[in-house]
Amino acid sequence: MTSTLTGANVTLRPPKEGDIDSRFRLGNDIDIFEMFGISRDDVPTVSRASAANWVQGIVEHPHAWIIEAREALLGVIRLDRLDIHDRRASMAIGIYDRNALGKGLGSEAISVLLGHAFGPLRLHRIGVRVLSCNQRAIRAYRKCGFVEEGREREAAFVNGAWHDDVMMGLLEHEFGR
Questions:
Q1: What is the distance in angstroms between the CA of the first residue and the CA of the last residue of the chain?
Q2: What is the tens place of the pLDDT at every residue in 31-82?
Q3: How high is the mean pLDDT of the chain?
Q4: Listing from the earlier edge strand, what are the strands of the sheet with 88-95?
């Protein structure tokens, strides 16, 4: 089971009773999902079943956490493709509550996760991919120490236009400088 990780304003925790209802109430904000690389016309509506599947996916993932602030579910953060031999993983974060955007909560969640990744998990490298048009996420990653390492040109087709994928990375000795 995933352990609970705490920061000053956010808690990263395993799913609990009530999370299905909370995720259902948040819905799928079209502007947020567009930054995830989903065209506006393709954003699905949230049903109770899809909210339950979302929570179950976090339960089944060995390195995924609900992001919570002030006892409210904001989103999810996870480490994917964790490779113990090479001591690396990729990270993904999704804030689904529009009211939580732009308040530093996502950056804090990233920092809390990085402390766990570079601390107890003893990872050496964390990578992220982000759409070039998602400047809010790029600022958050830079704030946490990530640097741009490359660009996959015209890798995502969103709303009838091509967008680059920006690859960013952070090494353990760079974290917290």
A1: 31
A2: 989 888 888 999 899 999 999 999 999 999 999 999 999 999 999 999 999 9
A3: 94
A4: 5-6, 11-13, 64-69, 72-83, 88-95, 125-131, 161-171, 147-158
To which H or E segment does residue 75 belong? strand 72-83
What is the residue type of 147? Answer: V
Contact (Cβ atoms closer than 8 angstroms) between residue 37 and residue 158: yes
Q: Give the three-class secondary structure for 99.
A: helix
What per-residue string of b and e applies to 111-148 under the rule 16 or more CB within 10 Å gives b? Answer: bbbbebbbeebebebbbbbbbbbbeebbebbeebbbee
CB count within 10 Å of CB 82 equals: 17
Contact 107, 143 (CB under 8 A): yes
Residue 1 has a pLDDT of: 60
Angstrom distance (rounded) from CA 58 to CA 8: 23
Token reading at 165: 């994928």
DSSP character string of 4-63 = PEE-SS-EEE---TTHHHHHHHH---HHHHHHTT--GGGPPPP-HHHHHHHHHHHHH-TT
